[in-house]
Amino acid sequence: LAPPVPSRRSTPRPSSPRPNSAPAHPRTATPNTTPDTIAMEPQPSSTLVNVAEHAELRLVQLLAESAPPALLGPTFASDCEARIASADAPGLVRTVIRDPGAMTSLFAIDPIDGAVSAFSLLAALLDRVDDPEESGRLCAELAEAVGRDNASYDPRKRAAMLCALYNLRTDGSEKCRLLSRVVELTARSDPRALGPSRPLGRVLECDSVRRMADGWGVSGSERRALYRAAADG
C-alpha cells in the first residue's frame, strides 16, 4: 500500500448531516485538485457494511463484537446506543476513542480501506457539533487517538485515517497540524513516498508548503511544525 498522496481528481466536500440522521455513506479520504485534500490508494471492499441507515449503530456493533472482551468496557455498547439515541455526537466519539477494546477492534479491521471507512463514520460526526471550538477540540482528540495514543498499530493505517480526518476538516490550523502528523507517520511506514519524485514529496517542497500555509492563514508556530515535519521526512 502506498501512503496517502495528493490526487488530481476533484470531489466536493460532503455536506453536514442533520443532527438526527446517519451519514449518507462511510466516507473515506477522497481526492481533490488542491493540496487541501490528500488521498490513499483504493483497497478491496471493506468488511464494514456500507449502508446509510443506522450506520453508527452498525459500527458500534462491529466494534463491540470483535473487540477483545478483556479490553472492552462492560457498558460500551449501551453507552454508545444512549449517545446515538440522544444525538450526542461528541459523546459518541469520545466513548469510542476512550475505550481500549473498541480502538483495538477499529485498528484490527482489514484491509486498510475498511478501517478508514469505519473511522470516517466517527470523523463525520464532527459535522454535527454546532460549537466550532468544541468541534476543534474533538478533532484534536481524534487525531491524538490515532496519531499518538495507539502508536503500536500499523502506521500506514493510522496515516490513512488521519487523511480521512484531514479531508473532512476546513479549518486551516487543523489541516496544518493533521498534515504534519500524516508526514510523520508516512516517514515511518514508507519514507520513499516522501522522495522528490513522489506526489506527496512534491507537495512537501518548500514553495508548495509555503503556499499551503499562506492559503490556510496559519500562525508561525504551526508553520514551523509543518516545515519541521517536511524536513525530517
Descriptive report:
With 233 residues, the protein is mainly alpha-helical. The protein has helices at 55-66, 76-85, 89-97, 100-108, 112-124, 132-147, 155-168, 172-189, 199-203, 206-216, 220-232. The longest helix has 18 residues, at 172-189. Mean pLDDT is 80; it is low at 1-34 and 41-52. Residues 7-27 have a biased composition (Low complexity). Residues 1-42 are annotated as: Disordered.
Outline:
The chain has 11 helices and no strands.
Give the radius of gyration.
Answer: 17 Å
Mean pLDDT, all residues: 80
Number of domains: 2
Structural class of the secondary structure composition? mainly alpha
Descriptive tags:
11 helices; 233 residues; mainly alpha; 56% helix
List the helices and strands and how they pair.
Blueprint: H1 55-66, H2 76-85, H3 89-97, H4 100-108, H5 112-124, H6 132-147, H7 155-168, H8 172-189, H9 199-203, H10 206-216, H11 220-232
Helix pairs in contact: 1-2, 1-4, 2-3, 3-6, 5-7, 6-7, 6-8, 7-8, 8-11
Region (Disordered): 1-42
Biased composition (Low complexity): 7-27
